[in-house]
Design brief:
mainly alpha
Length: 71
């Protein structure tokens, strides 16, 4: 009989951050390549790209750290 071990919540949090961060990153890149006619004050700093990259990085860290601890 095989023994089942539950995955950590951080595994799923990391996975969600990677998926959502990828969506934000792609949206930020699309906005940078095709800017809207009206812009906001800090639009030139490209916050979608920055936050998408941060979310993917942190989510990947959590995902692989929890996955490594699970195995």
């Amino acid at each position: 009989m095989s023994e089942h071990q539950m995955k950590s919540i951080w595994y799923f949090v990391g996975l969600m951050l990677v998926i959502m961060g990828f969506i934000v990153l792609v949206s930020g890149i699309a906005t940078a390549l095709n800017p809207p006619e009206t812009s906001t004050v800090l639009a030139e700093t490209q916050p979608g790209i920055w936050w998408g990259a941060i979310m993917v990085s942190f989510g990947g860290f959590l995902f692989f750290k929890a996955r490594k601890a699970w195995q």
